[in-house]
Amino acid sequence: MKQAERDLKIFFGSDFFNEIYSLDEASEELNSLKNTIKDFIASKALILGLAGINLDISNAGINEITPGKTENAAWYKIKDYRRDLVTNYNKALDYGFQLIEENSESLKKWDSSPINKSFSKLKIKSLSEFEEYFSLNG
User: Which residue, among 34, 3, 8, 21, has the nearest Cα to 96 in the 3D structure?
Assistant: First the structure.
């Protein structure tokens, strides 16, 4: 969990990351942002810890641990676990950016965050603008 938090803190910048974690839960949108960031961290932490979660990795191979027995984990199951977790954390990050965009006036540290400074150098500066031209939602 801590590594996933550190990765996001580097991505957002410490000040903005800490602002999100110290948000007053009076606003439903800002509370949703805080929970979405927690979802991202949880999914990323699971990916980082995948090797140790219900899997036994040794010289004998990768085994899936189930109650009462250990079986070989199929490669496609491991691939599916990882894909699903990546999908989950990407969706959480996308939704988090949408909430940040919608509530930027309430987030004092957003303007000075490293990621916002990077976004400001782009021709397309927001998720909604990107979706308008290059929708990934069909």
Answer: 34
Give pLDDT tens digits for 9-68: 888 889 998 888 887 766 788 888 888 888 888 888 877 776 556 666 678 777 777 777
State the Cα–Cα distance between residues 95 and 32, nearest whole angstrom: 10
Residues 33, 72: Cα–Cα separation, whole Å: 39
Query: Do residues 7 and 17 make contact, with C-beta atoms less than 8 angstroms apart?
Result: no
**In a 3-state reduction of DSSP, which class is residue 6?**
helix
Comparing CA positions, the residue from 92, 100, 87 lying closest to residue 127 is 100
- DSSP letter string over 61-113? EEEEEETTEEEEPPHHHHHHHHHHHHHHHHHHHHHHHHHHHHTGGG-TTTTTS
How many CB atoms within 10 Å of residue 8?
20
pTM over 0.85: no
